[in-house]
Amino acid sequence: MKYISIDLETTGLEKDRYEILSFGAIIEDTENKLPLSEIPKFHAAILHSELTGSPFAFNMNKKIIEAIVQYQTAKDQDEKNDLVQMTGMHFYHEDEVVEGFYRWLYDNGMVEVDPNFLNQQIVRLENGKIYPAITSKTKPVTINVAGKNFASFDKHFIERLPRWKQLIRIRQRIIDPAVIFTDWKNDNALPSLDECKIRAKIQGEVTHDALEDAWDVIELLRTQY
Q1: Is the pTM of this model over 0.85?
Q2: Each residue's pLDDT tens digit, 184-209
Q3: What are the φ/ψ torsions at residue 219 (nearest 5 degrees)?
Q4: Helix 193-200 / helix 210-222 crossing angle, nearest 10 deg
Q5: Would strands 90-93 and 122-124 be described as parallel, antiparallel, or unpaired?
Q6: Distance between CA 29 and CA 90 in Å, rounded?
Q7: Are 143 and 4 in contact (CB under 8 A)?
Q8: Which residue in 51, 61, 56 sits closest to 7, CA to CA?
Q9: Among 2, 20, 3, which Cα is nearest to 11's?
Q10: How many angstroms separate the CA atoms of 187 and 195, rounded?
Q11: pLDDT at 120
Q12: Cβ–Cβ under 8 Å, residues 81 and 63
């Protein structure tokens, strides 16, 4: 089975008021468990001209915000490329991130495409890669998603991104590791990601980095397969 572990960092908890700062995603194949260094990863920072949010969220995500500012004020493309290399993130405007995610899915064999697409309209990127053009007739890709609190939090933010509903479909059954690590006798609520890691005996604190949190979810789920 293949699923995608997704995590977001945002400027606050209210989906209709606050913005996504970063988007981390990792493709997991339960039959081919790759290390973090080799597994397919998507890590995006989203460029905003203005931000609305809570002081707590701004403080927690100050490194991401600093990277966004550095990218927006970079003198040239070489400086931007250096920042991408240093942070491991690609930087997208909000109306570009879903297309970038879709192309990453395509690069990793997650998108079913007409084998004759090269005879149709294509897009050639600056790096020489070619992709089927995204049009009103593009068939959305359906994915299995895992994530801590994804169904109640991240999903509501991510569905606001331009073109998400056009290009991406999420299966209804979201994989949340909290259920696996719940102490049904003593817990009054589902455990946090930190508590799940403690119970699974996985070392390291939750960093609130979107990609690292997505990896934490995969490590938790790997204890079950």
Answers
A1: yes
A2: 999 999 999 999 999 999 999 999 99
A3: -60, -40
A4: 40
A5: unpaired
A6: 23
A7: yes
A8: 61
A9: 20
A10: 11
A11: 62
A12: no
Reference 42, options 80, 7, 79, 73; nearest CA is: 7
Helix (H, G, I), strand (E, B) or coil at 198: helix
Mark 140-162 as b/e (b = at least 16 C-beta within 10 Å).
ebebebbbbebeebbbebbeebe
Q: How far apart are CA 194 and CA 216, in angstroms?
A: 9
Cα 51 to Cα 96: distance, rounded to the nearest angstrom? 18
DSSP letter at 205 equals -
pLDDT at residue 118 is higher than 80: no
How many C-beta atoms lie closer than 10 Å to residue 94's C-beta?
Answer: 14
CA distance 6 to 22: 11
One-letter amino acid identity for 54? S
Task: Say whether 169 sits in a helix, a strand or coil.
Answer: strand
How does DSSP assign 10-65, residue by residue? ES-S-TTT--EEEEEEEEEETTS---TTTS-EEEEEEE-SS----HHHHHHTHHHH
Say if strands 122-124 and 141-143 run parallel, antiparallel, or are unpaired.
unpaired
**The tokens of 10 are what?**
């945002």
Q: What is the DSSP string of 52-121?
A: ---HHHHHHTHHHHHHHHHHHT-SSHHHHHHHHHHH--EEEETTTHHHHHHHHHHHTT-S---TTGGGS-
Encoding tokens for residue 223? 């204890």
Q: Which of 50, 64, 49 is nearest to 10 (CA)?
A: 64
Q: Give one word for 80, left, alpha or beta, with left for phi > 0 and alpha for psi -120 to 50.
A: alpha
pLDDT tier at 115, thresholds 50, 70, 90: low
